[in-house]
Amino acid sequence: MKEAIKKILKALPFDFTKNQRYDRLTRQVIQELCRAGSNCVDVGCHKGEILDLFLKYAPNGSHKGFEPIPAMFQNLQQRYADNANCEFFEIALSNKKGSSSFNYVVSNPSYSGLLKRRYDRPNEEDQEITVRTEKLDDVLPPDYRVDMIKIDVEGGEQLVLEGALETLKRYKPVIIFEHGLGASELYNATPEKVFEILESCGLKVSLLDRFLTKKPAFSRDEFAEQYYKKLNYYFIAY
Questions:
Q1: Whole-angstrom Cα distance, residue 225 to residue 202?
Q2: What are phi and psi for residue 98, nearest 5 degrees?
Q3: How far apart are CA 58 and CA 39, in angstroms?
Q4: What span, in angstroms and rounded, lies between the C-alpha atoms of 86 and 80?
Q5: 3-state secondary structure of 113
Q6: N or C: which end of the chain has fewer CB within 10 A?
């Protein structure tokens, strides 16, 4: 029932929530920027909602999906078993290779992450599991050109970026990413640090709608204001 309602809401020509607006803008950005042969990376692949857009708008590309939750990883492998241009990794991307505890929110997997974040709903059921961690730079083949990356890892996005510096500097992919209070501060991440990482890789930061309407990118202070005032938590680097 919940999934059916989601589909109905997505089909409507207006947005009820900020999340629905982000979803619509994400689709627009992917549709506008992806070419048939674009290669895309989905970090925090979950059920494959964004991967489906990559496949639709970049049908000839080679796509990589990262999902550390065993049950969701297995579901992805089964769902896309007949799609030769998808490859999945049961890995939590970070800034170092190893293993780590991981907070799996059984009642709401989208809240899962390396650290336990604040929940918006009471009585969430979670459990601690152990996952493998890797740097994106170490997992991708040296000759794999990256055109677009989506990062949705419940606060761990700075760790993902720190482990992808070589890839970002080499290919300067478009990055669609979450970064907001309620999760990222648990990792000692700040918008200033995230901005500096992206800037050092030759990337600018903005909102998806600002990007689509060709408005100027944010300065570091403008990006930080979005974060600290909780104006937005979904961004694009390009």
A1: 21
A2: 160, -145
A3: 7
A4: 7
A5: strand
A6: N
Domains of the chain, earliest start first: 11-237 (3.40.50.150)
Cα–Cα dist 185/89, whole Å: 26
Does the model's pTM come out above 0.85?
yes
Find tokens 């970026």 and name the residue.
161
Give me the DSSP letters along 63-112: EEEE--SHHHHHHHHHHTTT-TTEEEE--EE-SSSEEEEEEEETT-GGG-
Cα separation, 40 vs 173, in Å, equals 9
Residue 145: how many other CB atoms lie within 10 Å: 15
Question: Helix, strand, or coil here: 7?
Answer: helix
**CA 194 and chain centroid, separation:** 14
In the chain, which ranges are continuous DSSP H helix?
A: 2-11, 18-33, 49-57, 70-79, 136-139, 157-162, 165-171, 191-200, 208-212, 220-228
Q: What is the pLDDT along the chain (238 residues), one digit of tens a residue?
A: 545 445 544 555 556 688 999 999 999 999 999 999 999 999 999 999 999 999 999 999 999 999 999 999 999 999 999 999 999 999 999 999 999 999 999 999 999 999 999 898 889 999 999 999 999 999 999 999 999 999 999 999 999 999 999 999 999 999 999 999 999 999 999 999 999 999 999 999 999 999 999 999 999 999 999 999 999 999 999 9
- What is the distance between the alpha carbons of residues 189 and 159, in angstroms, rounded to a whole number? 8
Amino acid identity, position 32:
E
